[in-house]
């Protein structure tokens, strides 16, 4: 008998190196809980959401109830879970769809982390508890139409209007590819000021703030990305994040997001690989299962090699993070390698599914399309290559 799409694979096909044995009981429980949530609340609906380019807003409080929003943060209603547990959750969510994992990343690793790490006590109490439950959604505005990989060249500017420390801020500029902006209650906006780059908490109902969803996407269709325009948005003096000046503020948040990505993409890769295994065992060609041919087995072996190597990279990176020893250039290693290999696995899986693989009945091509976005955001392949190059040689080569 061969497995149907709903039946489990053999242990060797599912986890060739028995990497589950490297996890603690608490880590396995977290992974199992999130996997069950994905099986119940995402898998049955994701093809429809993707086809309609629909983000299910109702899923936010469901994720909040599981402690997935800002789950690596402590206090203010956040779960305070380990880096490895957060990574495992990201992997399981992205096995459902990159767009749903991206929501958790934007909400927790970007918007909530910015407030938690750089905000005042009052700002934390105002925003974080309701963001942790999913009642309120946040977004993170760094990228601009002309400033993607080079955020230092951003043109968005915040000026003081008035005298003294109580003077208002007036914010003008544009941001692009900002996840969740059209449904967010608060935007973390990074802007130039006379004193350097600062972060601002901008209620999205502020006059002059406009978020417009980007249409016509071929990737991340079950997610929302927006253009933001800010036309003299007036903010009170205490809208600024007081804890940081300069790009180290947004970069510290991006590193949190990149860490989640290097785990998450392995979920898309694993789901695609497992779909290919099941399909090749069921699909008969020339009177025998497709899985019985040497070329098929070579492709499956290549997929599991890179998948499990990527999982080892992610787990080791997570252990370093939990130990407080993780460096940003090590996150670049995982983001560069795991995204690149995940795309290759998804494409190979699609190939094994033949013509049927281009339909939404099967997940690999959807995952591959999504990963084109993941490969671009939070640092392109080229940027992470140069981060690693500088770490290796001591010589910056960005310009």
UniProtKB/TrEMBL annotation:
Entry keyword annotation includes Plastid: no
Domain Acyl-CoA oxidase/dehydrogenase middle: residue ranges: 139-233
Cofactor(s) required for function per UniProt: FAD
Domain (Acyl-CoA dehydrogenase/oxidase C-terminal) ranges: 252-392
Family: Belongs to the acyl-CoA dehydrogenase family.
PANTHER family membership: GLUTARYL-COA DEHYDROGENASE, MITOCHONDRIAL
Protein name: glutaryl-CoA dehydrogenase (ETF)
The organism of origin for this protein: Nakamurella flava
Classification of source organism: Bacteria, Bacillati, Actinomycetota, Actinomycetes, Nakamurellales
């Amino acid at each position: 008998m061969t497995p149907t799409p709903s039946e489990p694979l053999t242990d060797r096909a599912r986890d060739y190196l028995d990497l589950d044995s490297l996890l603690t009981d608490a880590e396995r429980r977290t992974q199992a809980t999130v996997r069950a949530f994905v099986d119940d609340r995402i898998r049955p609906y994701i093809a429809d959401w993707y086809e309609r380019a629909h983000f299910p807003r109702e899923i936010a409080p469901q994720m909040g109830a599981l402690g997935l929003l800002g789950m690596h943060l402590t206090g203010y209603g956040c779960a305070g879970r380990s880096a490895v547990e957060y990574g495992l959750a990201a992997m399981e969510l992205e096995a459902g769809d990159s767009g749903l994992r991206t929501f958790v990343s934007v909400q927790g690793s970007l918007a909530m982390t910015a407030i938690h790490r750089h905000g005042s006590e009052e700002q934390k109490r105002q925003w974080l508890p309701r963001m942790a439950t999913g009642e309120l959604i946040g977004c993170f505005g760094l990228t601009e139409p002309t400033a993607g990989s080079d955020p230092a060249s951003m043109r968005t500017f915040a000026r003081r209007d008035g005298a003294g420390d109580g003077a208002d801020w007036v914010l003008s500029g544009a941001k692009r590819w900002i996840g969740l902006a059209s449904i967010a209650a608060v935007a973390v906006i990074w802007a130039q000021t006379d004193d350097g780059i600062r972060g601002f908490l901008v209620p999205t109902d502020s006059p002059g703030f406009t978020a417009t969803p980007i249409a016509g996407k071929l990737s991340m269709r079950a997610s929302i990305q927006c253009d933001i325009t800010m036309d003299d948005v007036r903010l009170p003096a205490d809208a600024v994040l007081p804890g940081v000046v300069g790009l180290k503020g947004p970069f510290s948040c991006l590193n949190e997001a990149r860490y989640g990505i290097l785990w998450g993409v392995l979920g898309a890769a694993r789901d695609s690989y497992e779909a290919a295994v099941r399909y090749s065992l069921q699909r008969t060609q020339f009177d025998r299962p497709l899985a019985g041919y040497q070329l098929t087995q070579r492709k499956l072996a290549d997929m599991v090699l890179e998948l499990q190597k990527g999982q080892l990279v992610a787990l080791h990176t997570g252990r370093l993070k939990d130990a407080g020893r993780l460096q940003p250039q090590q996150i670049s290693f995982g983001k560069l390698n795991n995204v690149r290999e995940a795309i290759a696995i998804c494409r190979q899986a699609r190939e094994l599914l033949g013509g049927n693989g281009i339909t939404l009945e099967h997940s690999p091509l959807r995952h591959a399309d999504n990963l084109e976005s993941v490969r671009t955001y939070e640092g392109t392949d080229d940027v992470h290559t140069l981060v690693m190059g500088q770490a290796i040689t001591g010589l910056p080569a960005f310009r």
